[in-house]
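Predict fold of DUF1868 domain-containing protein; 257 aa.
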Amino acid sequence: MDGNYQSYINRVVQMTAPINYEQQIKNIQSSPKFSGQKPVNFPGYTIITPPHGESNHNQEFYKKLAHTQRQLVEGLGADFFVALPADSFHITLADLIWDDIYLNAVKDKPNFDQLLISKIENIFKDYKTVYKESKPFEFDVLGISIFPRAIAVCLAPTEKFYESIIKLRQLIYQDEEIVDLGIEQNYEFAAHVTLGYFGDVSDDFDYHKVQSVVTEINDQWLENSPSNFIVEQFELRKFTDMTNFIRQDDWAMMKLY
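Predicted 3D structure, encoded as tokens:
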């Protein structure tokens, strides 16, 4: 499903181009992951960078993200745009399983969690034999994108690092035991940090206001943003909702330094 590097750049640049905001805004809808300002139960597993609250890296980047997030809340309203806790900011490298699919998998296999944790550990070991040059991934900031249920800042790795990420995803999604656990690839890779989700979206919300606010903030972001984001580590995490990502010390982790 993941294309080559040039197709990635073309796709994500288009996602962040203000000229496309008008069309993106027409597709927005309330996220089921929040009820008012509170996250709803939404359990599952994912492969992500350490959340901002647990990382000592990219502090300037995260500081700018938090400022941008506050601007969005002020411009769009806290009911319309529900901000995530800044401590939860992260980049997802591979979605695994979530919500009802995860809950049903646990019902079918009471030891599902242990099986998944063990299998991801083995995949990380295999990845280390392929990715022998241990060097942090570098991402360039492209701008703000409006997703159907969220607003995020999108990024692009160099071609070399993109290929390394796609290799990891292939090892996961093409593994027979992973497939047998009910895990499959649902999305093309798009490196992003989610800033918040759409909450109370009425049928008559002001399209032009949303477009104006996001465009102005995007222009400010690109003028003043840190030049890049460094991924020095990624790991298996379990989430209970979209604000809480947890892990045990012995779960799979890949250090790139």
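Helices lie at 5-16, 21-25, 59-76, 99-108, 112-130, 159-173, 176-180, 207-224.
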